Amino acid sequence: MFNLTNKLDSSDNSESDTYNDTLLDSFRFINGRRYHNDSEVSYSLPNDEDEADRLNFQHSLLKYAWQGNHSSPVQERLTKGKARVLDVGCGTGKWLLEMSRDYQDSTFIGLDISPMFPDPSETPSNVAFLQCNVNDGIPFPDNTFDFVFQRFFSKYVTAEQWEDVTREIVRVTKPGGWIEFFEDDIEYEEIDHFGLQILNAIFAAIEAKKGNPHPTAIIPPILQTIPELSNIHHKKVPIPIGKWGGKLVTSTLNISNEIHEDICEVVAQGFDINKVSSVTHRWFAQKKTT
């Protein structure tokens, strides 16, 4: 995992001082938690070790729920080798690391604004990571990748930014290649007043940062309007929230571990009765060859 302490202990004075100043400018610290320091970006979750643990747990949970790391029909292409795969907003790189070990003859690249990437000693030779803000564009030429994956991104960008990033993803995908988006939304038939307050507070926090708490409302129409795409598919898997779902409430709603137990105690009964779920969605589509 990214180790800030080791980076700051460099003994090359002039170069390391410049590097350390730049590195420190990348972060801000609030109540003992580390965050990225780009005021132009609406992503508001931490990027420290605790958050890395949450993201890794979340990945394992989602892989179990979906029984796999992707829905796009790319297994044969990746198995043959020499395929290129991009993960946009890769976080800790857990998805990439697993994919790279499953398909060792293909190449995997991860992009993220927060440098939470694995230590190089833990990174296979067919994986690379690049820190960048994809709202400024994806730094690769047209038609570079056979498969581009993105997960839990739309909550942290405006609808306009999401459309721009989607078009960038299509641009860097090879003709005949596949793109895949993984998002979640909340579904319930009934809910008690306090539970509704909790959900509304989460939605309001996302909207305050100009994100999209309900990606299912924006993603399908955007995909349908991009002329380069065909074979658009959609699948969904509901994941329970509340005590009937255990710590799924922590991972799928991006709630910090510190408040998980308190929330569960207060709202779990209502969530259990009404079987409130975080419904996870995968949209995947193929770029046309002509």
UniProtKB/TrEMBL annotation:
One of its GO terms (biological process) is methylation. GO terms for molecular function: methyltransferase activity. Keywords: Methyltransferase, Transferase. It comes from the Eukaryota. InterPro entries: Methyltransf_25, SAM-dependent_MTases_sf. Residues 85-177 form the Methyltransferase domain. PANTHER family: 2-METHOXY-6-POLYPRENYL-1,4-BENZOQUINOL METHYLASE, MITOCHONDRIAL (PTHR43591:SF24), METHYLTRANSFERASE (PTHR43591). This is S-adenosyl-L-methionine-dependent methyltransferase. It comes from Gigaspora margarita.
